[in-house]
Amino acid sequence: WFVLRRYGIQGLQAYIRNHCRLAKRFEGLIRKDDRFQVINDVKLGLVCFRLNGTDRLNQDLLANINTSGKLHIIPSMVKGQYIIRFCVTAEHAKDEDIGQYLDSTGQ
């Protein structure tokens, strides 16, 4: 109820569409880099991905990302493989936020 009162139906639709669009943008950037693979079919604001390589390599990548303090990303296991879950959740997230982080990590 409070969410609907805060945003209204059109505002909530725009909020969700923006997060879906940003997730697709992130997915596109990840797919352009041969070092990574996208694990899920991105339909909402969630992108599951991993570095090609060992689970240890992916655990180290996640630890480095989270230690940076710029993002907080969580892991999961899918079909016995360690994956990294990127979810767009910031209320005022925009295109520059996605590109800025990737540019600053050299990805």
Features:
3 helices; alpha+beta; single chain; 4 strands; about 110 residues
What order do the helices and strands come in, and which of them pair?
Layout lengths: L1 H30 L4 E3 L7 E6 L3 H14 L5 E5 L2 E7 L7 H11 L2
Antiparallel strand pairs: 1-2, 2-4, 3-4
Helix pairs in contact: 1-3
Largest sheet: 4 strands, antiparallel
Residue stretches low in confidence (pLDDT < 50, at least 5 long) are 103-107
Strand content: 15-25%
Strand order of the largest sheet: 1-2-4-3
Cofactor: pyridoxal 5'-phosphate
Pfam family, one: Pyridoxal_deC
InterPro entries: Aromatic_deC, PyrdxlP-dep_de-COase, PyrdxlP-dep_Trfase, PyrdxlP-dep_Trfase_small
Keywords: Pyridoxal phosphate
Please, could you describe this protein's structure?
This protein has 107 residues and is of the alpha+beta class. 51% of the residues lie in helices and 20% in strands. A 4-stranded antiparallel beta sheet has the order 1-2-4-3. A hairpin with a 7-residue loop joins strand 1 and strand 2. Helix 1 packs across helix 3.
